[in-house]
Structure formats: C-alpha cells, structure tokens
Amino acid sequence: MRATSKLFLLVAIALTACAKKDARGPTVEPRALAAPRPELPTLLAFMPQSASAEATFAGLESELGEDFNLMPSYLGADATASQLAEQIERSRPAILLLMNNPTLRLYRSYQALPTARRDLPAVAVLASFLRETSGGINNLTGVIYEVPLLTSLVNLRVLLKQPLKRVGVILRPSFRGVLEEQRALAASEGFQLVGVEVAGTDQREVKNALERLRGDEKVDAIWVLNDNLLLAPNVLTKGWLPGLKGNKIPVVVNVGSLLSRKVDFGTFAVLPDHRALGVQAAALVSSVAERGWQTNGLDFEYPVSVETVLDLTFARKNLELAEDQLATVDRLLE
User: How far apart are CA 56 and CA 48, in angstroms?
Assistant: First the structure.
C-alpha cells in the first residue's frame, strides 16, 4: 500500500472511532417504546444515533422494559441545556441515562441552570474517562467505557511466547491520574507502565516519545490512550505513524476502529460488549432506585463483559505467538 494511502486510511479509521463514540443525530422528541404506564417510573435516555448506543439501549430495555417507561431522546449537535430542561420537565423522569461525552457535557450545563433538578439521578455510559470527565455533576454513577489496561495485558500475555512486562504510554499532563490508577492495577500482575508526557499535540513530540519508548526505554508493548487530542488526524499521520515505522511490538488500543487489516497500528484490544453495557447500566439503575433515587455509595464500575480482538496478520509476522491460545480470542483480523 502506498504511504499516502496508509495515512489517509488511518485518518479515516480515527475519525470513525470518534464518530462511534460521539455521533449525534437530529434532535427529536422523546418517544416511548410502549404506551406510558402511569404507575411506573420513567427513565429518560439522552443518546446519540449510533450502533453502540442502540445496542446499549437494547441491553437496558431487556432488563428494565417491564418495570420502567423507557424514553430515548436523540440529541442533535445543536442541542442546548434549555432543550434538555424542557424534555426533563415534560417527561418528569425518575432517572436519566446519559450516553457519551458530549451528552455528559451538555448535562453539566443543564445542572448549572437555576431551574435544574440537581437531585435527579443519572447513570452514564459510553463516555471516555468517565471518572475524570464527570466532575461537578451531581447524583451520578455509571460504567467506565475503557476496559482496565490490566485486563488487556493479561489477555495479551497468554497469546505471547515473548516477554510482556514493560508497557509504554504517551500522555498529556491531564491524564496523570489515569496513568497512576492503571499503573497500580497493572503492578499486581508484574507489569510496569512507562509514561512519557507530551505538552500538547505537537506531532514531533509524539514521534519522539514513541522513538524513546521503543529505543531507550525498550518497552515490550505500547498502550494508546483514548485521548481525542492525541488521536487527532494530523497527530496520527505526522506523529504516530512515523514514530511506529518498522514497529514490531504489540500496540494495545481501546477503540476497535484503531484495529485494521490494512494498517499496522493497533495490534490488540479488549473492548466492551455494548449490549452487556446496557444490562450493566440497568443493574445500576435498579440499585439507584433501591437507594431512594440516590447514587450515594455507588462507585463507577468497569465493564463486566468484553470482547478480545487481535490483528493476526501483524502478530504472526512480528510476534512470537502461542498458536494454541488463539482460540481464546473472540475476533481475529486476517
């Protein structure tokens, strides 16, 4: 494949990844899946129009459809906090479901309104780095979208006959808390996280950081954070790709779209099962109801059901694979 084609394709992959997480359709009125039943509480779901959101809502419906009036509301890119307020006032929900980061930011703006129902509980899903991005939102719990790095590394180690101990990661200063949390979890299984900070999104910084990790630090793998700024198209094409030129170590990603049969970027991923995310969110909704519609005592959870994906072509070409363990991988890209 020509270099320019590879660059273009990787940009397209990155844009697809962002679209899957943040896509929104036009603003529409809330619609009930069935005729509202006055005796039941209402769950109002603010969500984008995306396959992942629909699968998550389907999982929620399978668990709560008989006990709640479920009302999905698709938010357009021009949605405002005042529009959220109108829908909440009209629907009078007992609880909200908030899907993705733009919806979470919009809800924070809603809670700043003088007329906001700040006591209204909410469950958040499909939002990147939920613990960090949910600050300032009252009465909120949810499921963290990213699978813990430890889970990815343990699953990857089973597939390899080569060392997997030192794992490099590039991060901006605002992600130090994420790094330290994942470092503590990973240490329990003997993994060492080596972080290299970059001040911003300068492509040369990213390229130099990758070269440092692969050279001086001699890491066994690289972990790619779900940082939209560091995964911007210009940073990917002028930072990540040059920095990974000739790469022969596994690259662990958190977004399925960064794994491709045609581009050597992501090697391995452990991804949330979106329908199962909905089931998990439903369990949180039930817990909130049992607590008198309060999220007190409910910490954010990690996904409990996941899917493993491996770029088998890259792995067979560059890694020492335990071929007898490939059957444990849910999806192989060849």
Answer: 11
CA distance 73 to 31: 7
Task: Give the residue from 133, 64, 71 showing the smallest Cα distance to 96.
Answer: 71
| Whole-number pLDDT of residue 38 | 80
pTM value > 0.85: no
Burial of 298 (0-12, 13-18, 19+ CB in 10 A): middle
The CATH code of the domain at 3-18+147-271+307-333 is 3.40.50.2300
- The pLDDT assigned to 21 comes to 43
Tokens matching residue 257? 């779209």
Identify the CA nearest to 155 among candidates 316, 310, 260, 276. 310
- Fold for 21-146+274-290, please state it: Rossmann fold (3.40.50)
Question: How many angstroms separate the CA atoms of 329 and 308, rounded?
Answer: 5
Q: Nearest CA to 36 among 81, 116, 90, 97?
A: 90
Extents of the domains making up the chain:
3-18+147-271+307-333, 21-146+274-290
Q: Is residue 75 very low, low, confident or very high in pLDDT (cuts 50, 70, 90)? A: confident
Q: How far apart are CA 301 and CA 299, in angstroms?
A: 6
More confident residue, 256 or 34: 256
Same fold, 3-18+147-271+307-333 and 21-146+274-290: yes
User: Does residue 25 carry a pLDDT above 70?
Assistant: no
What is the Cα–Cα distance from 131 to 134, expressed in whole angstroms? 6
- How many other C-beta atoms are found inside a 10 Å radius of the C-beta of residue 67? 15
pLDDT band at 201 (very low <50, low <70, confident <90, very high): confident
Q: What is the pLDDT of residue 12?
A: 44
The whole-number pLDDT of residue 33 equals 58
User: What does the DSSP 8-state code read for residue 1?
Assistant: -
Instruction: Provide the pairing of β-strand 306-311 with 268-272.
Output: antiparallel
Quick check: 4 pLDDT over 70? no
